[in-house]
Amino acid sequence: MDIPVVTPPPHDKPASLPAATSRLLLIAVAALFTQQTFVVLSRLVLPVLAPAISADLGLNPALIGAYAGILSSVAMVLAIGAGGFIERFGAWRMCQFALLAGGVAMLAAAPGHLALFALSAVLISPGPGISTAASSHILARHCPPSRAPLFFSLKQTGVPAGGLLAGVLVPYLALQFGWRGAFLATALLYVGLALLLQPFRAEFDADRHPSHRSFLTDARETLRAAITEPPLRSLVLAAFAFVGLQAIFDSFFVIHLVDGLGYSLTAAGVVFSISQAVAVATRILWGWIAGAFVAPRFVLAGLGLVMAAAAATMALAGSGWPIAAVAAVAVVYTATAYSWHGVLLAEVARLAPAGRVGATTGGVIAFIMASATLYPLLFAAILAGAESYAPGYLLAGLPALAVAIRLLRGKV
What we know:
Layout lengths: L18 H39 L5 H18 L1 H8 L1 H19 L4 H11 L1 H17 L5 H9 L1 H39 L4 H4 L10 H14 L1 H31 L4 H28 L3 H21 L6 H15 L3 H11 L5 H30 L3 H19 L4
Helix pairs in contact: 1-4, 1-6, 1-7, 1-8, 1-11, 2-5, 2-6, 2-16, 3-4, 3-6, 3-10, 3-16, 4-5, 4-6, 4-8, 6-7, 6-16, 7-12, 7-15, 8-12, 10-11, 10-16, 11-12, 11-15, 11-16, 11-17, 12-13, 12-14, 13-14, 13-17, 15-16, 16-17
């Protein structure tokens, strides 16, 4: 059974961990961080390779929005049923499954056919759709309540770490083996990592119920809790607005720098990687602050205000800007739009009904995936119509601004 996470007042002194609990927690955080890193990498491989693929095959860069939309749409459906999958197969097994599916997705994309790119997006979807709910289920069972924001944030640093790895590793592999070879090489990494997790499966999946079958009931309850419970609804709105800005950065930042500002793919990859490296540190920082000093809703509100401003500034970027200025904006963007997840997921775990942490998280993830579907599609449509990246950034920042104001007014 899941153990509901309850965050104590900031002045509470964290309790010391028993040795066995400490060992399991460290194993869980390290393994789930690595798994999260590769889940994020899987959905960034194609966007990072997009300039090379576009040049080789003559595809319109706006098709990235369709790719992201397919991926997120399927992930949204999977997230709704995540609680049932976790209940029956175990959270650890679902993390392994997401990695294996990512490996097969890389193999599917390598031939370079449009239909196979679409299939690749479908195969990647278990990663963002299920693994976050699964990892929340595991951490909620092994993490002390007073340390939840920090440990959830440590695990979620896998998101910017995956972006950092994508910005460094994928262009290197493309340079060495071509963009098709880059897909094949990453496929091997996913299969290997899934196998490395196997020795710990029995211990972390000891709470699973193989006879569980009520997936439809689980899905209804998951959506009901996310929509009808006022505190959870506020977190859903925040996640929807914030992840939209992240999805736009994931899908369009590299090609914006190459296609819109005239940078080389290598230079764009370096800027992307720098921004991801900073986000690793800021995720931990915000988790530490929210767990010890400032109420989580105020941390989330501050992040919303700054990410909206960063998106507006990104809209102003032009070909005459020095690369250092663009990098500075990107750093502020990712330090906020990439760094809220641990704080928000810890709050979701705290507010979830007993035994429903994974399922409740799945409900929130479903709305996150809806946003990750909608934002890139709208951004792509605006880009195709306006032939400019600026309007998309400006419009995408407005919901984050509205949510930040809502949180400052105490709507959690």
